[in-house]
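So, can you check?
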Amino acid sequence: MERGIPGLAPGRTAVMAVVNITPDSFSDGGRITSVAQAVETCGASLKAGAHILDIGGQSTRPGAVEVGPAGEMERVMPVIQAIRRQLGSEPVLSIDTFWAEVAEAALQEGANWVNDVSGGSHDPAMLPLVARWRCPYVLMHRRGDSRTMDSLAQYKDVVGEVEAALLRQAATAQAVGVEPWQLLWDPGLGFAKTTHHNLTLLRHLSRLSRHGYPLLVGPSRKRFIGAVLAQPDPCRRIWGTAATVCKAIAGGAAVVRVHDVEAMAQVATMADTLWRSPRIGSPPDGDLNPGGPVDGGTGSPKDPDADRGSDQPTDSAGAARHR
């Protein structure tokens, strides 16, 4: 990719804080009820380790009812304006919307990113807007919308089909003038995906990261974690979220989108030390394996996906990189 994206830095996974100005989001709907509370939450998230604040006024949980552009703007615009007045220009703000009208209003008030769960498919004006503004754009995979997506979670090869769809969406964006450096990919965990699909995507994120687009992964508190842990309360899925954040970072994620910022910022820092900055904490003599050879004495590290059994998808060729 060619230019820098605000909030991203080499060797560090960016932590994106979820800031839902909604009454009906799946785990924290109704928690923020005033502009003052929203600004306080954003300030606390930044102190806790967030690098990006993702502000949204539309729930995207299964079955959610759309409030429309006017409803979204009524919720989010006072918050963005107050953040810029009280917290200054330094915080990196993302507007979580699939409406071009909302995105443009937010960009005019100082938002830096657009995070679109529809990948440009909901509003035909979105991609041309992103091209004009030259802003970072999160292009997410999903099928259908909040009302229909659960019925569309059918794949023969979920990794290959998500990969192909993201490549098509990226090509569509670039055809209207969006630059490759602007794009981030999100595999859309929880959007038209079963538990098996979500876990398979997490196991094989390297299939997506190889194309050179920074990956944003948002597993936080989601239903598939609850299914694995038999935990119906989203707010009690923090340990499962931590495990998925680690796996996302090991798989090449550049951004993790989370609710529990302080805890997940620590998880990300530790995971970065293990997978993105391997020299930190290594022995002074440079011996990275003081305990002896790995993989049964051969001295060769194993491919982390080598023992995934039937979940291992067949690799596809011919994908262009954009470095």
